[in-house]
Each structure stands twice: as C-alpha cells, then as structure tokens.
Amino acid sequence: MRCALPVALAALITTQLLATPPVVIAEGEWGIELVLSNYYPVVEQGSAIQVKVTVYHKGGPPSWSVELYLSPPAPPPGVAVSFNPQKGLIASTSDTFTSTMTISVDESVEPGVYYLNITAHGYWVEEEYGGGGKEWHYWHYVSMPLTVRPRGAPDLVVANLTYNPPAPRAGDEVVFRASIVNIGERDASSFLVVFLLNSTLVSSVLVRGLASGAAVRVTSTPWKAVEGRYVVKCVVDPDDRVEERDYYLGGEQNNEKEVELEVAAKPSFRLVVEPGSKTVKRSRTATFKVYGESLGGFRGYVRLRAYLLNSTSRVEVALSRDRILIEPGAGMTILEEDVYANLTARTFEDTAIGNYTIIVEGVWEEDESTRSRAN
Asked: Domains, the chain, ranges and CATH?
C-alpha cells in the first residue's frame, strides 16, 4: 500500500508601511506552527471526519492573529472543508489557537487519495506613534493526504484456527484448519490464506472469493511434525488483494489468528539384554533375556532378530520367539511371556576361545523406522 506523507511549509513576509528601520529578529524560533491531530484522515463515501487543528505561537511579535483556510489547488467536487472557528488570536507565546476542521465527502467522490493544503496565516501590525507601523505575515501549511474509501467493503476475519491430531507427536502428519468469515458489507474477490509455524510458511491456499456474510473452511497441506514448541499463525489476505474495511487505516487487524502447538517426542522403545555378558565353557549354552522399555508411551509388537557381530559357524544364537510386546506399564499384558524372549548362544568343542558380540535388533511392526538395537 502506498503511503502518502504530509508536507509542512512556512513563509514570512514583512510589509513596511512607513520608512522606518526594520526590526531585528532575535535568534531562535519565530512565527507560528500548525499542528493536526490526524495527518492521515480516512473518510468513507457519504460521511465526514473531524480533525483538531492547533496553532502555536513560536516567537516574534507579542501576539498573532490567525486565520485558517485551504490553499490551492482546491479539493475535488464533493469534498468540503470547514473550520470552527476559522479566525482567532494567539495572545502570547504561552497561548494557542484551536479549531475543529470538518471534512465532508459526498457519495459521488471517487475512492482514492486527495491532498488538502491546510493553511494557517498569522499576522501582526506594529503600531507606531503618529500612525502607520510595520505589518508582519507568517504562513504555515500542511499538505495532508485525504483517503476516500468505498462505502461498504468486505472484511475478512479468521474466526477459528485448529490443528489435527490435537496432541501430535514427532513424525505425525498434522493439518491446520481455519474458518474464514466475510463480516463486511460487500463480497470479497479471490484471496490467499497462509499458515505459518514460528513465522515460517508451511502452506498457502487460494480462496476464489467469499460473499458477504459467508464463511469458508480452509485446510492446509499436511505437515510432518517435528518435536518442539511452535506458534501456529493463520493470515488471510496477506498480500492485501482485497480492499477491506480497514485497508486504508494501515492494517487489517482482524486478518490473523494464532495458537500455540507443542509436538511431543515420537513414541519409541529401547531393547534390553540381560545380563549384559556371560562367560561359558565350550559345548555349553549361555541364556539371556530380551525385553523392551517403552519410551514416550510406546505400545506395540516388535519383531526381533539376533546375530553375531563377527560371523562364525561355531557359535549358534537363537531366540525363543521372534516378536515381543512392548508397552508403557507392567500388568497390562494377558500373557506375560509376550513381553520377553529368551536368547541362547550355544558353543561347541571346537569353538575358538575369545569374545563374541551378539546383536539383537527390534523393529516395530507398524513403522519400520522405529527400531532399536542392543548387544
């Protein structure tokens, strides 16, 4: 959106009425200063706005007579400006002149930006003995942009923002949904709806218009969750395609909504082999117990595989079962044997003396990316 800036100018003219030496102007501020309560007024077609005008005594003569008016060029037909009061006196440097400027815009005025040259004219006549004297004039004006917006406009609001699943874990596919409502008086043309995570764009959806009073449900593309804390934000019409009710006021404040999101760690498991080591003689068998510990609420069946790190035919390893159940707490399983497997390592007469490492791997049957390994 283009931003129009007000421009302030001042001018001083001294008119010598009699042939007397000019008065020396002391160093410092001099003249008058025009100040507005609103430098960027926005008016809807067929309505009006009021702006407070204050004129300050900045120095020079003891007092200033002040008159307010518009300098050329004149505003377009249908735009009327009045001051109440239009004239006044600033009696001293501690005094001010205050007026109310009313800007009225007819319904026939085309929407757009127009400039008004608000002018304050200060003058003072220095009386001299015997008549005559010196006359001082000072002008200060502000070129103020007036924005005229259409009567009635769309107004897009993010009414609701949710995500599913409601308690996601790392690795889950999460979708975000937002309800967009047009609470304005006119239909809205096409616009974008974007979803952001910690200010990073994750999805963008095009809505091909929305009637006045209507609502639409927008769903993002799936996002694969990563463990952490996030701020989810939905913004409607981020590139200002639709001139809404607050468009000319510098920010469509109801066009976004945000919620907090926490993604927990992905449920997983850890395989445990007990004891951690054993010493056996040749032709003997060592027995170990293999079970799993649930991490993050994990529950499921895990396929097991056991093998020697350094392959040899003279040590045989075997599992009593090829799958076990791993769950968060004890006492939930009907058959206790489901939760562990016996691992045996058999040696022979000719098995070489030394250390052997047995590897046990576990893979979740529902997601092979969830696995663990123990030795």
From this structure: 7-149 (2.60.40.10), 156-263 (2.60.40.10), 268-374 (2.60.40.2410)
Between strands 42-44 and 133-149, the pairing is parallel
Q: What is the C-alpha to C-alpha distance for residues 307 and 316, in angstroms, rounded to an integer?
A: 9
Quick one: how many helices (H) and strands (E) in the chain? Answer: 0, 26
pLDDT tens track for 248-280: 544 456 799 999 999 988 888 899 999 988 888
Q: Give 16's pLDDT tier (boundaries 50, 70, 90).
A: very low
Higher pLDDT, 375 or 15: 375
Task: Write out the two tokens for 9.
Answer: 């100018």
| CA nearest to 188, candidates 213, 160, 218 | 213
Q: What's the per-residue H, E or C state across 214-279?
A: CEEEEECCCEECCCEEEEEEEEECCCCCCCCCCHHHCCCCCCEEEEEEEEECCCEEEEEEECCCCC
Q: What pairs with residue 88 in β-bridges?
A: 66
Strand partners, 119: 69, 141
Task: State the Cα torsion 22-23-28-31 to the nearest 10°.
Answer: -80
Question: What are the residues whose beta carbons fall under 8 Å from the beta carbon of 239, sequence distance 6 or more?
Answer: 192
CB 203 within 8 A of CB 176: yes
- pLDDT of residue 106 exceeding 70, the answer is yes
Higher pLDDT, 36 or 374: 36
Across the range 296-301, mean pLDDT stands at: 84
For residue 336, the SS3 value is: helix
Nearest Cα neighbor of 88 from 119, 115, 67 is: 67
How many Å apart are CA 32 and CA 276, to the nearest integer?
Answer: 92
* CA separation, residue 283 to residues 144, 184, 316 (Å): 101, 87, 11
> Cα 263 vs. chain centroid, distance in angstroms?
20
Distance between CA atoms of residues 176 and 247, nearest Å: 27
With H, G, I as helix, E, B as strand and everything else as coil, classify residue 155: coil
Contact 155, 246 (CB under 8 A): yes
- 169 or 311: which carries more pLDDT confidence? 169
CB 196 within 8 A of CB 163: no
